[in-house]
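Supplementary Note 3. Input sequence used for the single-chain structure prediction.
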Amino acid sequence: MNAELAIAPAHENYTGPGRPAPREVDWPHIAATAPTLAATMLRYLDQLAVSLRPSSVASAEGILRRFAGWLAAHHPDVTGLVDVERRHIENYKTYLSTRPGRRPGSHMSPSSIRIALGTLRTFFERVSEWDYPDAPTRVLVFNGDLPTPDDPLPKFLSDPDAAKLMRAAANADPERRLVIETLARTGLRVSELCQLPADAVVFQNQRHWLRVPIGKLHNDRHVPLHVQLVDLLDQHRAARDDSIDRLIIFNGRPLDRHIVTRILNRIAKTAGIGHVHPHQLRHTLATQAVNRGMSLEAIAAMLGHKTLRMTLVYARVADQTVADAYDRVSDHVDALYTNPTGLRTTGTGSVAMGRVPAEFDQRLLGNGHCNRPAQLDCQFESICEHCAHYATDTSFEPVLRAQRDHAAERDQHGRTDLFQMLLDRTHEQG
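The predicted structure, written as discrete structure tokens, is reproduced below.
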């Protein structure tokens, strides 16, 4: 047995935050049932470790290990990846949909299922591209297998709630205020905030910048600092007597996401706005910037987005173009509801095109009148007879009849029916 199979034993100690979760299956157990499959997966994971972050490799390792463990338990005849068939994938999809979720009584979420199946699909594709001897002989996972992801808008604070939070932060102790102000004024991810080195503030081009080291998206960027935030950072630095290589510390120790969350929730509770997640302040800054005319390119650079596609979500949150277009037509729509339309109804509900009052803006057409109010612009030139503001009577019967006959001679059946309908209507009203 390959020595690599001994990694990640079942009794491995968990050292991360939160409560440890026991492993359902380990690699030695998988190797005992499907040695070729285990060797292929571990070889693949070794390659991922060369180019991906440890957290990404750990995520892929867990997904592959659980899939291999499921195969070992339910399909012991599968000893290598080449033995995996489409029916196994379909059965595994059903299993994932019934797998318990994080909350008691819940099932695995569609997004988690999508990640699991997407990781498997990438694995199958790459081992085939890399010409592994145990590669599958056909495509096993298709795009249609992945649940359609939800595309919710980011949760952000409204302007009034954001103002309440900042007022409450201004009255808090200096360290808590600094944490809130930094998140709210820079749009940093909480992990970026916690890892900022002591020398993260730089002065260039006649202003102060925050240098954010390479992080989640493998990019390094500079974020402009608000003058007020520069003062708060100077005060924080002057009050310290430690040697911790972090820009901000709290109670004499480095920040972590749990400390930041507790600080934010305490301030949010004081502000009376309920629970707030640190990432909401990032969304809030981006939304405020879009609302006030900052370009998407500038927002992408400030937030450290790799592509504008990531930034476009904020254009959906506050699409000023849509808002402006709506405002432009609102007056016209209001005129439709508040001004006469030219239609008259009798007590029985039938439409009667009686005498048009003087206050109507009546326009003469070739075969009738248009009673559309002047406030309502009409962009159509050839469909008047279908318009609700169109009116005609028996005085136009010769013209209507001529138009009907003209259409009939040219086999224009739709127009023929239209003018016949108008003739019938004038007779009914006459």
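Residues 363-429 form one domain. The chain has three domains: 3-145, 159-317, 363-429.
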